[in-house]
Amino acid sequence: MAEELIPIVLFLSIAAVAIFRPLTTRIGKVIEQSQAKKSVGQDPQIQRIMQLMERLVDRMDRLEDRVDFTERVLERQRLEARRIPGSGGGESGEQRNEGRDRREDAL
Fold first, then answer.
1. Residue 96: exposed, middle, or buried by beta-carbon count in 10 A (0-12, 13-18, 19+)?
2. Do residues 34 and 53 share a domain?
3. Closest Cα partner for 92 from 104, 102, 84?
4. Cα(78)–Cα(85) distance, integer angstroms
5. Which of 4, 57, 84, 85 to pair with 75, CA 20 to 30 A apart?
6. Reported pTM
């Protein structure tokens, strides 16, 4: 009877390892990650670096907004500058400049 139990116990042991090994491996990884997060949160140097990085990201976002705004304003000015010469009653840019020069000389 004992000889019959040996293969059964061996088979059950192999099945248990095959079933539980992925589970225990995953649990081990989760525990390691939580420990790593705790150690990162406790290190004052790393906390300072993280704060500096957050401030830099915030400043970069504000700078990007300012650059976008400036680009829009410049583009609007370029479009207006293109429209103004064409809407001057057929007068070229040189003719307008000559007229402006005459007015300045008269003053």
1. middle
2. no
3. 84
4. 12
5. 57
6. 0.39
